[in-house]
């Protein structure tokens, strides 16, 4: 994304975000899911809005708590199909921020948890569920449609 004053923006900066996720069947009832995310901010301005900066987005970590000029996350989720409609899963994720300034800093955090999904529409493969996630600072409950990623 490109933000420029000449395009009507308040500041000049660029952001980049790359996402990837994949699922690997391990056995008839077991599935391993992997997801990764990379975000970067390129700007020479110091007065950008806090929501402009990339942040670690993991279940169990509050949004915008850990920000930097570069952010990378990696998540894994192991799921077990109890029946055709019920799935339980455990997950773990790790994220790292890097701040480019006079004093370059970085921070690494992780989160983990468990959850379940119920398939409400077999024809469309739609799942509803809940996750309970933990990190060093927070405990959170998530209600979601689809997978946890």
Automatic annotation (TrEMBL):
It comes from the Bacteria. This is Bacterial surface antigen (D15) domain-containing protein. It comes from Agarivorans aestuarii.
């Amino acid at each position: 994304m490109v933000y420029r004053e000449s395009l009507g923006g308040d500041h000049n900066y660029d952001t980049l975000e790359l996402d990837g996720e994949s699922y690997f069947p391990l056995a008839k009832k077991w599935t391993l899911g992997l997801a990764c995310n990379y975000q970067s901010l390129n700007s020479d301005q110091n007065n950008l809005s806090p929501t402009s900066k990339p942040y670690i987005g993991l279940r169990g970590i509050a949004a915008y708590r850990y920000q930097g000029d570069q952010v990378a996350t990696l998540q894994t989720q192991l799921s077990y199909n109890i029946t055709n409609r019920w799935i339980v899963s455990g997950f773990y994720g790790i994220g790292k921020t890097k701040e480019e300034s006079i004093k370059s800093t970085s921070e690494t955090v992780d989160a983990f948890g468990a959850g379940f999904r119920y398939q409400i529409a077999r024809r469309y493969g739609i799942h509803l569920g809940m996750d309970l996630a933990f990190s060093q600072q927070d405990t959170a409950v998530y209600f979601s449609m689809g997978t946890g990623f």
